[in-house]
């Protein structure tokens, strides 16, 4: 069930086996802590978090330099690289996980790939000038995420006639753009972009219709951990959204997601391992 045409992702020196689902742990890079190119204590704290996520079962660690959060300040390519490069180097050396770099910046894609990153995670789906070519040159897989506009303004009354249909059309167009620069389907991961230019109803409609995205023949990444779509239903602040996040994790797996982007790796691994136990019982 839900088999994509390509059962593995080749992420540099690592291979991600897509016959089962995986957890991508979020490594929060606080904007100020690496502005000097790598303060030892901040770098060490990040490494400790990365090691803990690896021990808890994460297959991928997602490192963000330029903040993708709504309303976040724009940083220069050099600032972004100064923040993220020391981490990619350090985690690449000390951990045995795939490093994903959350970036839309061509130079950051190129340089972090050189330093050992295994996945390009672009919330702008390679729409920035030169991003398609840079991603193609890395030879790494790319995660194409749906968003409309820019993080600063994307939540200003987004409107869709058919949110799932429009997300699918957008992702199809980005797949076609990738094909033109030689990024083929076996290098593409798709992400509907929960919380990006979508209101609460949009997010739940899209989540319900996640299986329709499987028709695009690429593995699906879902990032809902602690997001406002959970807060809006539960009326709970971000630090009390774990059970809501785990509920959506189960349902994302049921709907065919192959990568879950989460803050709480150990707890999500329990969900994933139970899901896998049920799945393998079905197949026997
Ligand atoms: C507010 C909104 C705060 C969003 C933080 C976020 C995704 C991502 C992010 C995602 C992929 C967060 C997000 N979300 N990359 N980067 N998919 N591929 O929760 O859903 O960290 S930022």
What does it look like?
- With 284 residues, the protein is α/β, with parallel strands linked by helices.
- It has a single domain (8-283), classed as TIM Barrel.
- It is built from nine helices and ten strands.
- Strand 7, helix 5 and strand 8 (188-191) form a beta-alpha-beta unit.
- It is globular, with a radius of gyration of 18 Å.
- The model has no long low-confidence stretch (mean pLDDT 92).
- Ligand 7PM binds next to strand 7.
Give short descriptive properties of this protein.
alpha/beta; two-stranded antiparallel sheet; single chain; binds ligand 7PM; 10 strands; 284 residues
Short description:
The protein is α/β, with parallel strands linked by helices. It has 9 helices and 10 strands.
Unreliable stretches (pLDDT < 50, length at least 5) are: none
Rg: 18 Å
Mean pLDDT over the residues: 92
Name of the CATH architecture: Alpha-Beta Barrel
Query: Which class do the helix and strand fractions yield?
Result: alpha/beta
Q: At the third CATH level, what is the topology name?
A: TIM Barrel
The ordered string of helix (H) and strand (E) elements is EEEHEHEHEHEHEHEHHEH
Ligand species: ligand 7PM
Q: So how many helices?
A: 9
Q: How many structurally independent domains?
A: 1
Look at the structure and name the CATH superfamily.
Dihydropteroate synthase-like
- The CATH class is Alpha Beta
Largest sheet: number of strands, sense, barrel closure: 8 strands, parallel
Q: Helicity level, as a percent range?
A: 40-55%
Instruction: Sum up the overall morphology in one term.
Output: globular
């Amino acid at each position: 069930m839900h088999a994509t045409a390509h059962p593995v992702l080749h992420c540099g020196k690592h291979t991600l086996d897509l016959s089962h689902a995986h957890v991508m742990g979020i490594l929060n890079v606080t904007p100020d802590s690496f502005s000097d190119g790598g303060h030892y204590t901040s770098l060490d704290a990040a490494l400790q978090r990365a090691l803990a996520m690896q021990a808890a079962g994460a297959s991928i660690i997602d490192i963000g330099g330029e903040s993708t959060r709504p309303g976040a300040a724009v940083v220069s390519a050099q600032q972004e690289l100064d923040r993220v490069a020391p981490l990619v180097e350090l985690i690449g050396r000390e951990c045995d996980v795939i490093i994903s770099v959350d970036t839309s910046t061509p130079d950051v894609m190129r340089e972090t790939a050189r330093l050992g990153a295994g996945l390009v995670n672009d919330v702008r789906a390679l729409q920035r000038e030169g991003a398609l070519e840079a991603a193609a040159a890395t030879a790494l897989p790319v995660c194409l995420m749906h968003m409309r506009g820019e993080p600063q303004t994307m939540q200003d009354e987004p409107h869709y006639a058919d949110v799932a249909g429009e997300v699918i059309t957008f992702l199809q167009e980005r797949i076609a753009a990738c094909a033109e620069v030689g990024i083929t389907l076996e290098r593409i991961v798709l992400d509907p972009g929960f919380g990006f230019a979508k209101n609460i109803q949009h997010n739940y409609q899209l989540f319900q219709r996640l299986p329709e995205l499987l028709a695009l023949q690429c593995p699906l990444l879902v990032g809902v951990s602690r997001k406002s779509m959970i807060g809006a239903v539960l009326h709970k602040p971000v630090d009390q959204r774990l059970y809501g996040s785990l509920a959506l994790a189960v349902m994302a797996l049921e709907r065919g997601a192959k990568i879950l982007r989460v803050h709480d790796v150990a707890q999500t691994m329990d969900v994933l391992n139970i899901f896998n136990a049920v799945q393998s019982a079905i197949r026997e």
